Amino acid sequence: MYGGYALLGLLTKKNALTPFRRTWFRAGHAHAGVMLLMALLFFDYLSQTRLSLAAKHLACGTFVAGILTQSGGFFIHMAKGEEDRPSIGTTITSLGAVLLTAAIAILVYALFFAHA
After folding, report:
1. Please, where are the H alpha helices in the chain?
2. Three-state DSSP class for 16?
3. Is this structure's pTM higher than 0.90?
4. Per-residue pLDDT for the chain (116 aa), expressed as one digit of tens each?
């Protein structure tokens, strides 16, 4: 709901939603939506493994942090970035990709070596 509210705010302000900002706003929402669907599968498969509770919590926390940083970086770049230049937002998005990769690596290990 907040995404729709934020978009409405940008649309009603004059010149607030430039083509650059529109692109990064869409990218942030698209990645968040895909990650939500991916999370459903991730948590379901992780629950079927024999990892310890602490390892499962680590994997879940890493995955959630990855989702938030991956998607959030797009929004930060939308607000603070400039066209054709990297920003703190692109760095945060890259960090999110690393966190997601780590969480998925834990899941793959668990599915192959610690499956119930």
Report:
1. 2-12, 19-47, 53-80, 88-113
2. coil
3. no
4. 666 666 666 667 766 778 898 888 889 989 999 999 999 999 999 999 999 999 999 999 999 999 999 999 999 999 899 999 999 999 999 999 999 999 999 999 999 987 66
